[in-house]
Amino acid sequence: MGPPTWARLYKATGEKKYLDFMDKEWWATSDFLYDKDEHLYFRDSRYFKQKEANGKKIFWSRGNGWVMGGLVRVLEMMPADYPTRSAYETQFKKMAEKIASLQQPDGLWHASLLDPASYPSKETSGSGFYVFALAWGINQGLLDRAKYEPIVLKGWMALVDCVTPEGKVGYTQQVGADPKSFKPEDFEVYSAGAFLLAGKQMYLMAQHTNVK
């Protein structure tokens, strides 16, 4: 959540030191928490050895959603000629491919990315960030439209179905640090924020296709 703020400080001031600091800290964090085999981030070091009920590693959906959303927000501010930009784009593409492979039949992603059966409910905060990031990647030409657009459309329609008559985005895991169960009516502001970010990218994507 922090890196986009440093990138925006760079954009607002023109002072490269803010972007350089962000870059140094991003890759230090990645070296520590990014699983290069799974192309996902651990929430923190407490989860390095823990396993889900099915024996898989614990990768929290919303935690990785923060990363995907953060990648997008950083790339939006980062100059095309910044020395490590290609590394961010590579990480974005690898995470996008992994996340796309974990979409559930209901169109969304569950609280635990690698053990969805233990958390069978759809979850909108992580899912909103994934739809946002994948749609942005398509719009920027970083992701193949033919491959990713069906995933994005399915995810978006599933998100829309989770909006209550009062306008709240339900099925939101509450504040926490790891996958947990929750109720369909549960709502939080971060799921609404992710939904709005996704909606903007869906609108932009529709300008260049026959999407309705």
Can you describe what's shown?
This protein is mainly alpha-helical and 212 residues long. The chain is built from seven helices and four strands. The chain has a two-stranded antiparallel ribbon. The chain has a two-stranded antiparallel sheet with strand order 3-4. The radius of gyration is 17 Å and the shape is globular. The mean pLDDT is 94.
Quick structural summary:
The protein is mainly α and 212 residues long.
- Record field, number of beta strands: 4
Largest sheet geometry: 2 strands, antiparallel
Computed CA radius of gyration, to the nearest angstrom: 17 Å
- Secondary-structure-based class equals mainly alpha
Strand order of the largest sheet: 1-2
Order of helices and strands: HHEEHHEEHHH
General shape: globular
Please count the helical segments.
Answer: 7
Uncertain stretches of 5 or more adjacent residues: none
Question: How far do the termini sit from each other?
Answer: 32 Å
Residue-averaged pLDDT, rounded? 94
Q: What is the strand content?
A: under 5%
Helical content class: 40-55%
